[in-house]
Amino acid sequence: MSDFKELADRYIATWNEPDADARRAAIAALWAEDGTYIDPLASVAGHDGIGAVIAGAREQFPGFTFRLLGPVDSHHGIGRFAWELVPDAGGESVVEGSDVAVLDGDGRILGVYGFLDKVPASQ
């Protein structure tokens, strides 16, 4: 079984990658071709869809960084981890969530199922 801590680190690094080409390569390395990403705001399949969701989050929150929040737990090709989105300049997180990732037989992400635990208040 894949080391989920290392996978979660690579996953978070992909969300933080500013270069679109490097991000695309990271997505291709992490996700199965038909991999999915589903959270309360998105439901996409394939590398292009996943890339669009990540690019959208980066555009919505410039000057912020995703970080793992707490331990990574896994069993039987399924892992879960919490994360937060924090200002680069420091301060409190603006978004927090938790993701569950399911791997295929090759150790690539087949699906990520995200939950948002803390979101910015509406203006």
UniProtKB/TrEMBL annotation:
GO terms for molecular function: isomerase activity. SUPFAM superfamilies: NTF2-like (SSF54427). Residues 9-109 form the SnoaL-like domain. It holds the Pfam family SnoaL_2. Keywords: Isomerase. This is Isomerase. It comes from Phytohabitans houttuyneae.
